[in-house]
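pinned: reference chain
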Amino acid sequence: MSLYTSHNPVFATFSFYAALLIIKTLFVAFLTGWTRFRKHAFQNPEDCNKMNRGKVKIDEDVERVRRAHLNDLENILPFLTIAFVYVGTGPSLGCAKFLFRLFTAARFMHTLVYAVFVIPQPARALAFFGGMMANLYMIYAIVTTYASGF
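pinned: its structure tokens
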């Protein structure tokens, strides 16, 4: 049986959580644009309109959402690669589900406490490190699985 088909429950689980994370990342991109429009805070002169008199305006709420989106790109894209390779190690379904759920929950929580309902530290740090721990464990599993071939 191939590891990368819908018949493999680990790959099917990965695919489901990957789709959720991609939808979330796209949503945060939309949220950035919506917040810019709502606050009339455009970054480029050509995007400015009469509402803000053609001046570039930096708004902290917009910047916070934009940073949350950038953080998603910096963390979710590596997760997708790491988790895809991790599926190839043939992990148990239970362990893989736990790691994929942990990372997904951590990323949703990170966005919520950083960009939606701003909650002071350590909330954001805890969410970040939850996802990082999942990635580090998968990297460890990948390295130990494939290290014997070198």
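why pinned: The longest helix spans residues 9-39. The domain at 9-149 is CATH 1.20.120.550 (Four Helix Bundle (Hemerythrin (Met), subunit A)).
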